[in-house]
C-alpha cells in the first residue's frame, strides 16, 4: 500500500519479500531465466492452462465465497479433462506426459 500511496520505488528484494514478484535474478541471467520459465509453462497442457486462466478471470471481483465455489467447480472440471488424467498417469509412471490437446488450442 505504501508504494501505491507514496509512489516510492522499491528494490527487487523488497518486491520479492512483499510478494509482488516471485523471483529475482541478476540482469545478466534475466533472458536465460525468462526462457526457463517460458519453457516450463509451454511444457504443460494448453487445455488445462486455459481452464486455470478462465478461472482467474471469472473470479475477479467475486466475493470470496463465490470465488471459492467457482474454484471448486474448476478443479473438478480440471480433473475430468483427459490431459489432467494423462498428467497424473505420467507422474505416477515417472515419464513425460503426452498431452491430448495440441499447443495453441
List the helices and strands and how they pair.
Elements: H1 2-6, H2 12-18, H3 30-42, H4 46-59, H5 64-80, H6 82-92
Account of the 3D structure:
The chain is mostly helical and 105 residues long. Helix content is 64%, strand content 0%. It has helices at 2-6, 12-18, 30-42, 46-59, 64-80, 82-92. The longest helix has 17 residues, at 64-80.
Strand content: under 5%
Number of strands: 0
Helix content percent band: 55-70%
Note poorly predicted spans.
Answer: none
- Cα-atom radius of gyration: 18 Å
Which class do the helix and strand fractions yield? Answer: mainly alpha
H/E series: HHHHHH
Give the integer mean of the pLDDT values. 90
What's the helix count? 6
Give the overall silhouette: flat
Distance between the termini: 38 Å
Largest sheet: none
Keywords:
105 residues; mainly alpha; 6 helices; flat
Short description:
By secondary structure, the chain is mostly helical. It contains 6 helices and no strands.
Amino acid at each position: 500500500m505504501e508504494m501505491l500511496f507514496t509512489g516510492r520505488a522499491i528494490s527487487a528484494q523488497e518486491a520479492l519479500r512483499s510478494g509482488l514478484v516471485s523471483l529475482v535474478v541478476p540482469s545478466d541471467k534475466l533472458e536465460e531465466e525468462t526462457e526457463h520459465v517460458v519453457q516450463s509453462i509451454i511444457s504443460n497442457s494448453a487445455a488445462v492452462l486455459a481452464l486455470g486462466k478462465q478461472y482467474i478471470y471469472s473470479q475477479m471481483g467475486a466475493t470470496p465465497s463465490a470465488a471459492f465455489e467457482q474454484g471448486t467447480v474448476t478443479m473438478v472440471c480440471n480433473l475430468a479433462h483427459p490431459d489432467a488424467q494423462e498428467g497424473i498417469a505420467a507422474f505416477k509412471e515417472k515419464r513425460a506426459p503426452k498431452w491430448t490437446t495440441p499447443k495453441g488450442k
